Amino acid sequence: MQPILRYMPHEFSWDVVGTRVLWYLLTAVLIVVSIASISTRGFNFGIDFAGGILMEARSEQTVDLGKLRGELNALGLGEIGITTIGDTGHDVSIRVPLQTGGDPAQNAALKKVQGTLGTDYQVRRTELVGPKVGAELIISGALAVALAVMVIAIYVWFRFEWQFALGACLALCSDVITTLGVFSLFQLNFDLTAVAAVMTIAGYSVNDSIVVYDRVREMLRKYKKMPLPELLNLAVNRVMPRTLLTVFTVFLTVMALLIFGGETLRNFSIAMLWGLFVGTFSSIRVGMPVLLYLDLRREDFGNEPAAKQPAE
Questions:
Q1: Per-domain residue ranges for the chain?
Q2: What does the pLDDT look like over 167-223, one tens digit per residue?
Q3: Which of 3.30.70.3400, 3.60.15.10, 3.40.50.1480, 3.30.450.40 would CATH assign to domain 52-129?
């Protein structure tokens, strides 16, 4: 790690405030595309939300996906999704769509699939989710995300001032909407793991915003005569080395999950990679410049004596 840190820049001079209009337009485009995709394409709900049967099975031999897919789709249960789990080629995940006819139809479909697998496969996991449970989970997941955003906004409001809370909420909402847009646009499997990814991204984004805002508040107390745009740029550039180091560390962790986590964690890892990028981007390019428009007053941050202005 030490050789890598040696080549990382330690001083930055980004003009975040001066280029804010460009980044606002880019953020607006991403949000519009995300909302349009969610409205038209919807989500590729997993078994957790859509209902159906999820099975994980293991074979002693390498699985022939084409042959197994043909045998299962010949059962007349709808389009059955089959994917391998891990790198061995012996484990498969089988997704059977929700059957009409209630629980008896679901159980009958499960028996058909098990009969086709026969003794060649060892069933390691089976989940049956009805439509009512799936609908309840959708509502619960949406409420969880909404409440998380509200609680985070309240925390930032009490921790700082209302201007910072509003800026953090704008950045947080853009992160959540664009992450949902990625799931919709690329039709990634959206299940409870995806909800966990969205919640994790929200936490990461607000943590990054708090670090930047804390530096802004500190400088507002120290530099009484520095113009606000210059002060905001200075605050961002001061925390940038710490931000890049955090991003790099989390990136390595998420890449390990993506490569070695298997099919179960793949969508979670993809969402986290996107959230890592967009969360850092929004905290700096959205949540920071917006403070210029929110009547940020220096007198609200104490009456410490003015510090010597930093050298150019």
A1: 2-44+134-301, 52-129
A2: 888 888 888 899 999 999 988 888 778 888 888 888 888 888 888 888 888 888 887
A3: 3.30.70.3400
